Amino acid sequence: MKITLRTDVLTNNNIAAKYNRDLFMSTKTLVINLMSSPGAGKTTLLEETVRQLSDKYRIAVIEGDLATERDADRIRALGARAVQINTHGGCHLDARMVAATLPEFDLEDTNLLFIENVGNLVCPSGYDLGQQHKVAVLSVPEGNDKIPKYPVMFRRTELVLLNKIDLLPYLDFRIDEAERDLEGINPDSKIIPVSARTKEGLERWYSWIEEAYQSCYQH
After folding, report:
1. What is the mean pLDDT of residues 151-160?
2. So where are the chain's domains?
3. CA nearest to 125, candidates 94, 96, 100
4. How far apart are CA 136 and CA 122, in angstroms?
5. Lower Cβ count inside 10 Å, N or C end of the chain?
6. Residue 190: how many CB atoms within 10 A of its CB?
7. pLDDT at 31
8. How confident is the model at residue 219 (pLDDT cuts 50, 70, 90)?
9. HSE of 149 in the Cβ direction (CA atoms, 13 Å)?
10. Fold type of domain 11-217
11. Pairing between strand 159-163 and 191-193?
């Protein structure tokens, strides 16, 4: 017997994502969904971003983890509003989880909202959270095989921040190979090599954020 499913299993998520997106657009809040494997350096990158851009933008962060508020606490220590979502075993955030946190923010007074997704190169890529942009963080120690092995993640993101480039002299990671792999999977994306530790390349990341904000809200 053949069973045909006609209902999108992500219907409820997509309804919530539209609600989130409409709210973000009405409050002129630029939302960036940051995704990576565990340990790629998302939180450290966010810390540096908050430090450097908080004079220009009002920044808030949603932190996604299985447990603890450690990452949210790191962001709060910098003076930015941060709300923690603990999934208690779930491998990704969904739009309903994000929607439930939004009353805790003053979005009318928020220019940039970063969503640091649960560390995972598979599940987070399939869920629309209502964000305007999806950005992947890949770190040099992970090796050159991650882009071809996890193509769905990199096909659905428009920017890859290649973090920990200060370790390039000690590892055999090749940036040109990563660029070729990304070009083959998603020619509309690009790689920005950065080091959250040494600050190298971060100005390009900040410029990308500036351009994204202007494109959305300063036509």
Report:
1. 97
2. 11-217
3. 94
4. 12
5. N
6. 14
7. 98
8. low
9. 9
10. Rossmann fold (3.40.50)
11. parallel
CA dist 153 and 118 (Å) reads 13
CA distance to 80, 177, 178, per residue, from 49 (Å): 11, 27, 24
| pLDDT digits 0-9 by tens, 49-102 | 999 999 999 999 999 999 999 999 999 999 999 999 999 999 999 999 999 999
Q: Which helix (H) or strand (E) holds 82?
A: strand 81-86
Size of the chain in residues: 219
Taking the C-alpha atoms of residue 2 and residue 42, their distance in angstroms, rounded to an integer, is 44
The pTM of the full predicted model, rounded to 2 decimals, is 0.94
Cα separation, 110 vs 48, in Å, equals: 18
Tokens 């739009």, located at residue: 95
* Cα–chain center distance at 70: 18
Per DSSP, which regions of 101-205 are E strands?
Answer: 112-116, 133-139, 159-163, 191-193
pLDDT at 10: 81
In this predicted structure, the answer to whether residue 187 has a pLDDT above a threshold of 90 is: yes
